[in-house]
Every structure is written in structure tokens, then in C-alpha cells.
Amino acid sequence: MTFVTDMLSRIEDIAEFLHRIMFFDEACSRLSGIANRLNVRLWRSEKPHDYHELQRGSTKVEVWCGRPRHCAFLFY
Predict the structure, then answer these.
(1) Highest taxon of the source (predicted)?
(2) Mind listing the pLDDT tens digit for each residue in 16-63?
């Protein structure tokens, strides 16, 4: 609750506060097509009885994207 109160106070007091925030995200994907299980959630109504083989050492690509006020940055 303290964080929310502090952020609301800053938004009210500093006119350009929201324009100074940079939103960003990153993702890592394997070129073999296997999804990163840490970043993907599969919701099912029944208990799964299957298993997934792990593939180690395959080539992967990591993408990072940041979004400041006037433009976007994309790194891979």
C-alpha cells in the first residue's frame, strides 16, 4: 500500500512523472520451437499426466524491448 500511495503522490505532484517511466519486457525462445516453460503457463481443468522432454544446448534468441515516451528500443 505504501508503494501505491507514493506513486499516486508523485503522479499528482510532478507533471512529467509518467513520461519519465520506461516500460520494458524480455523473452527468450529456442529456435527449435520449444517454448520456455518458465515463461509459459498452461491452465487445465484436469491433472496432466503427460511429460515434456527437455532439450539442452539448442540455439536460442533473447529479445529485449524498452518503450520510453517517444520511441521504442529493440535488442536481440
Answers:
(1) Eukaryota
(2) 888 888 778 777 777 776 666 565 566 677 776 766 666 667 787 778
Give the closest residue to 30 by CA, choosing from 52, 50, 65, 56.
Answer: 56
Cβ burial, residue 47 (10 Å; 0-12/13-18/19+): exposed
Q: Identify residue 51 by its one-letter amino acid code.
A: Y
Asked if residues 76 and 61 have their Cβ atoms less than 8 Å apart, the reply is yes
pLDDT at 69 (0 to 100): 72
Q: Is the pTM of this model over 0.70?
A: no
Residue that is written with C-alpha cell 515463461 in the block: 39
CA-based angle 2:8:1, to the nearest 5? Answer: 20
